[in-house]
Amino acid sequence: MTSGNIDKFRMLLTETMNELNESIKYLKEASRPIEPSCALGRLTRMEAIGEKGVNEAILARSKARLIRLENAMERIAAGTYGICVKCKQEIPGGRLEAVPEALICVNCAGK
């Protein structure tokens, strides 16, 4: 992988991480406990509890993806970014554009 491609993917990773950090801030706020003293009707409270659960699930997935993106940045620093961990071949740029934290190529993922 050329240094120009590495820089492109470093920027993509940084942008994605920044977007996730912003989302995580919002999701933390949206996942706060619902106060029992809050003047909500029974159905509205049930909807709020359901929405809180959805936000918590999205928050957990966002945090996990952020960790994978940070690991990808470490692989860039180590010089191993874009190399499949299974077959040791270069991961195609299209796959890395779609999933910048990818560890394996499409062929190995299909096996």
Task: Please provide a written account of the structure.
The chain has 111 residues and is mainly alpha-helical. It has helices at 3-30, 42-78, 93-98, 106-110. It is elongated, with a radius of gyration of 19 Å.
**Average pLDDT reading:** 90
| Assembly type | single chain
Instruction: Specify the number of helices.
Output: 4
Low-confidence spans: none
Helix content: 55-70%
What about the largest sheet?
Answer: none
Briefly note the structural class of the backbone: mainly alpha
From the spread of the alpha carbons, the general shape counts as: elongated
How far apart the termini lie comes to 24 Å
Percent range for β-strand residues: under 5%
Give helix and strand order, one letter per element, not per position.
HHHH
Rg, Cα atoms, Å: 19 Å
According to DSSP, the number of beta strands is 0
Question: Secondary structure elements and their pairing?
Answer:
Blueprint (H helix, E strand, L loop, with lengths): L2 H28 L11 H37 L14 H6 L7 H5 L1
Helix pairs in contact: 1-2
Give a quick summary of the entry.
The chain has a domain at 3-78.
Distinctive features:
111 residues; mainly alpha; 4 helices; 68% helix
